[in-house]
Amino acid sequence: MAEDGKAEPSRSAHGRPLSPAGEHGSAGEHSPAGDHGSAGDQDSGTVGAGQAPSRPPVGDPLALEDREAVLAHAAGLILAAWRSFDHPRAGQPPVTDELRASLEGPLPEGPQDAASVLDHAARVLDASIAQSRPRFFAYVGSSGLEVGVLADALMASHDVNVAVEAGGAGLLEAQAVRWVAELVGFGATGGIMASGGMISNLTALAAAREQALPGARREGASGSRMSLVCSDEVHYSVRRAAELLGIGGAGVRAVPIDTRHRVEVAAVADAIRRDRAEGIIPVAVVANAGSTLTGAVDDLASLAEVCAEEGVWLHVDGAYGLPAAATSTKGHLFAGLERADSATVDAHKWMYVPKPCSVLLVRDVAALRRAFSHEETYMPHGEEAELHAVDLTLEYSRPLRSLKVWLALRVHGAAALRAAIEANLAQAAYLAGLLREHPDFELVLEPELSTVCFRHLPTGVTDADADRYHLALAGALQSDGDVYLAPARVDGRTCLRACFVNHRTTYEDVEGVLPTVTRVGAQLLDRQGPGTLR
Ligand SMILES: Cc1ncc(COP(=O)(O)O)c(C=O)c1O
After folding, report:
1. H or E stretch including 410?
2. Which atom of ligand 1 lies nearest, measured to the CA of 358?
3. Distance 277 CA to ligand 1 centre (A)
4. Which of 31, 98, 337, 481 would you call most buried, defined as having the most Cβ atoms within 10 angstroms of its Cβ?
């Protein structure tokens, strides 16, 4: 934009023509005077005695020709995608031989028409599994909220790096983090944005390790043994964090769960005391606030009590489930959250914005500083010892991911977000009801949040067949593409798992689940026969 607010003319209209470098001639052949500046320019080129400096003889080799038209074309493709997500489609388009061949070509050396290449990209994406589709129930993932898509385009255009003090963008990010904390009811003093739950969990646990074993970031464990105490059904990112932080996978105390898949609080306290008695330092308790497998929410208030008594950091992994803390239906499950030291919320899961976008909330930002602050010659802090975001986080270059959360909350408002989450909770409860009533289906577990684990047990599928049948059934459903479901193992049995985290899903979509599973299951049994499943 020009300063007067009018759109500037296209750069390519003013810039040098986009011909290959050779066509511009060499530095020696090119006249520097006219469009390349005057002899007075001293900022580039080598100046010989009495010789005017010359600029390199090329324009911007990456200037986009006709960018207004390309932008309008891209907008059309995005709109077409959004329209296609409004309704379920009949099936998953196959990756055709033609499409495959189109993706096996060599490095393109010359330019190609941008609109045609964008069309090709859209075709590839259309033949890919997409969580934005309303019957994609396979995993806990984002559903590409439209303002989030626009935020991403705007964010990438400005390409602000919020690794360092970044002016307005830093303020916006801080506001978005505060809003997320307020939405879920976490008394944060602050937090940081991260690429995903893995990084948020790792960041929190790095801070916890520094608190439990001060100096560990510099000295290493120095012979100390450390542990992490959590549910047997914690997400693997927590184990991976233990592996990376020198706690070690063997230092993860996977505590048994109750019938609702919540960690046994007394066993958590026992594990801490046992480790202490053996000279092992418990770095943190990690609570599930919506486990990936079943949506279980641990008893946060009781765990906070144990952690306060034992002086251990409480981290809440709410990557999936924590947005449900904002609802009136399930908010009570999260009581005690406000006493946690840190909590992960993935906005790219149940806050609907596109990946990547995670929020780590912390009670005491100083704990992040103790774990991450540093000063390098390329990033001095000045007299005030002011902090950059890199002093609080694991990542360096960081895009302004918070813009999509900020825009989503401003454009839709928190009330609409809560309503969408409530709708997903209701859809899970609705499916659970349909399963309970159907003689060929078994509801494996009452849904705690929006995840429903179930089995299809038509005549002919015996207990002995059931695990293999469900694996085969999940594969067949994914090829069919009407509803997209994945297999899971719950209490040692393979089942299907439907996760409702999509704002586009309707009750008709939920009603489509059982008939589709019945149809695809029947086709599978017809093809294979139950005996061959064994
Ligand atoms: C509970 C939980 N924690 C952490 C993660 C990891 O998050 P991400 O994939 O964003 O790194 C997931 C992913 O599904 C999750 O469900």
Report:
1. helix 402-412
2. 10
3. 32
4. 337
Residue that is written with structure tokens 């975001």 in the block = 389
The answer to whether residues 472 and 401 belong to one domain is: no
pLDDT at 377: 83
Mutate which of 131, 200, 230, 292 for ligand 1? The one with the most ligand atoms within 8 Å of its CB, which is 292
Please check whether residue 475 is in contact with residue 527, taking contact to mean a CB–CB distance below 8 angstroms. no
Within a domain: 477: yes
| Strands 358-362 and 342-346, bridge-based pairing | antiparallel
At residue 51, the pLDDT reads 78
Q: If you write DSSP's letter for every residue of 182-248 in order, what string do you get? A: HHHT---SEEEEESSHHHHHHHHHHHHHHHHSTTHHHH--TT-EEEEEEETT--HHHHHHHHHTTS-
- Asked whether residue 310 is assigned to any structural domain, the reply reads yes
Q: CA–CA separation, 247 vs 237, rounded Å? A: 13
Domain range enclosing 386: 159-411
The parts of the chain modelled with pLDDT lower than 50 are 1-46, 534
- Cα–Cα dist 307/313, whole Å: 6
Question: pTM of the entire structure?
Answer: 0.89
* Per-residue confidence (pLDDT) for residue 362, from 0 to 100: 97
Pocket test for ligand 1, best of 195, 320, 449 (most atoms within 8 A of CB): 320
Q: Which helix (H) or strand (E) holds 512?
A: none
Antiparallel, parallel or unpaired: β 313-317 and 342-346? parallel
Q: Do 377 and 429 share a domain, yes or no? A: no
Q: Choose among 140, 149, 75: nearest CA to 408.
A: 149
State both tokens at 258. Answer: 């109750």
pLDDT at 382: 72
Ligand 1 site-directed mutation target among 346, 357, 448, 501, most atoms within 8 Å of CB: 346
How much distance in Å is there from the Cα of 225 to the middle of ligand 1? 26
Ligand 1 atom with minimal separation from the 355 CA: 10
Residues 392 and 432 in one domain: no
Residue 331 CA: distances (Å) to CA of 34, 309, 334, 336, 529? 68, 25, 6, 11, 46
Task: Decide if 165 is inside a domain.
Answer: yes
Residue 237 Cα to ligand 1 midpoint, Å, equals 7
Pocket lined around ligand 1, Cβ cut-off 6 Å: 140, 196-198, 201, 235, 237, 292, 317, 319-320, 346, 358
Residues 434 and 384 in one domain: no
* CATH number, position 441: 3.90.1150.170
Q: What is the CATH number of the domain that holds 371?
A: 3.40.640.10
Ligand 1 mean position to 234 CA, how many Å? 10
Residues 6 or more apart whose Cβ sits within 8 Å of residue 237 = 197, 198, 201, 202, 317, 319
Question: Mutate which of 140, 142, 198, 228 to test ligand 1's pocket (most atoms within 8 Å of Cβ)?
Answer: 198
Long-range contacts formed by 169-178: CB under 8 A, 24+ apart: 169/400, 169/403, 170/389, 172/400, 172/402, 172/403, 172/406, 173/389, 173/400, 173/402, 175/406, 176/359, 176/402, 176/403, 176/405, 176/406, 176/409, 177/359, 177/361, 177/402
